[in-house]
Structures are given as C-alpha cells and as structure tokens.
C-alpha cells in the first residue's frame, strides 16, 4: 500500500551509501508549479526514488513516478484524465562543473547542499512528462461539443429561417480575417 506521503527532503550522500529506496504519494496540490498546468486538484501521484552510487562513485537517483491527473482538452476545454509515467536516472552533482563532466547518458541534478528536495525532483519530472497538448479522442470531444451546442440551440433557432445570402455573409467578414 502506497499511502504514506513522500518525505520532502533526504540527505543524498547518506541515502546513497545505504542504497535507500523511498516510496510515497503526493497530491497535485502539493506541487504548485505542476498543479498550475492541470485542470483541477483531482488525482494521485506515486513516486519511488532509489539512491545508489555507481562504479565511478557518482550519486544516482533512480526515479519511478506514476501520476493520474486531470488536464484540459485543448479542443473542447473540458477536463480529461491523463496518466503520466516517468522512469529516469539522475546523477546528483553540487557544481555546474561536475555536471559538465557527466557522461552524456546521465542527466544532472544540481543540488546546493546535502539535502535533496524530493518533491521538487518529482515535480520537475512530472512537468517534463506532461504532454504540451492533450485531447479527448475525437468521438468524445464531438459529444461534449454537441452537448454544449444543444444548450445554445434556442439562440440558433431564433435566427431567421430563410437561407442567408452568401454575399451578405461575405460582406460581414472583416477584410483579411481568417475563418
Ligand atoms: Zn475534448
């Protein structure tokens, strides 16, 4: 059962020396930068961070994160559920110079001191994992838009029943407007 909240900080060097693996949950509201990109507060985030040292004595954090959150459909603007999964290994360094010396396959995590703010690490990964645009499948969007249009129906029915003259319609368009 993953019901314990994820600790907010951990000493990287100690955790790596002991090969600590730490699991916990978070809510979207715990991560304000990530929450700002979501449709609402609903959802759950599960994270597992495993600390180790490699043969070069580098400090590594392996991240496994699963999140179920609500995002906004960019077509109909209704919320839709989105599942995010991150699986990544970060190499902890304390200076930009150290970061520059890492082999290309290792992503640096630059820390200011021993304490690693786990929530920030999880939040950064989730922000990167979030697709820039999300959409329902076409059929679902069409139904939502149809329901929306149904609510507008009385206004549309109030329009004149006769066929509009296409030249009048064209005349109403602003010059240079793209439709
Ligand atoms: Zn949609």
Word description of this protein:
Mean pLDDT is 87; it is low at 155-159. The protein is elongated. With 179 residues, the chain is α+β, with helices and mostly antiparallel strands. β5, α3 and β6 form a beta-alpha-beta unit. It has a domain at 9-129. It has a 5-stranded mixed sheet. 31% of the residues lie in helices and 31% in strands. The protein has helices at 12-18, 32-35, 96-100, 118-129, 138-157, 166-172, and strands at 9-11, 21-26, 43-53, 59-72, 79-93, 107-110, 115-117. The structure holds zinc ion. Residues 73, 75-76, 78, 135-136, 141, 144 line the site of zinc ion.
Overview features:
179 residues, 31% strand, alpha+beta, binds zinc ion, 6 helices, two-stranded antiparallel ribbon, five-stranded mixed beta sheet
Question: What count of helical segments does DSSP give?
Answer: 6
SS-derived structural category:
alpha+beta
Strand order of the largest sheet: 2-3-4-5-6
Content of β-strand:
25-35%
Tell me how many strands there are: 7
Alpha carbon gyration radius: 25 Å
Choose one word for the global shape.
elongated
Give the helix level as a range of percent. 25-40%
N-to-C series of helices and strands: EHEHEEEHEEHHH
End-to-end distance? 53 Å
**Ligand set:** zinc ion
Biggest sheet features: 5 strands, mixed
Uncertain segments of ≥5 residues (pLDDT<50)? 155-159
Mean pLDDT: 87
């Amino acid at each position: 059962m993953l019901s314990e909240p994820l600790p907010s900080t951990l000493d990287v060097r100690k955790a790596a020396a002991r090969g600590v693996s730490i699991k916990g949950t978070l809510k979207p509201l715990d991560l304000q930068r990530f929450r700002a990109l979501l449709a609402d507060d609903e959802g759950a985030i599960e994270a597992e961070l495993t600390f180790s040292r490699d043969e070069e004595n580098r400090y590594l954090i392996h991240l496994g994160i699963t999140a179920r959150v609500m995002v906004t459909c960019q077509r109909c603007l209704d919320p839709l559920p989105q599942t995010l999964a991150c699986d990544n290994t970060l190499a902890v360094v304390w200076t930009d110079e150290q970061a520059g010396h890492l082999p290309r396959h290792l992503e640096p995590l630059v820390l200011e001191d021993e304490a690693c703010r786990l929530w920030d690490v999880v939040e950064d990964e989730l922000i990167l994992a979030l697709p820039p645009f999300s959409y329902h499948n076409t059929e679902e969007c069409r139904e939502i838009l149809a329901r929306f249009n149904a609510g507008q129906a009385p206004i549309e029915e109030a329009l004149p029943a006769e066929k509009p003259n296409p030249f009048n319609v064209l005349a109403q368009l602003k010059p240079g407007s793209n439709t």
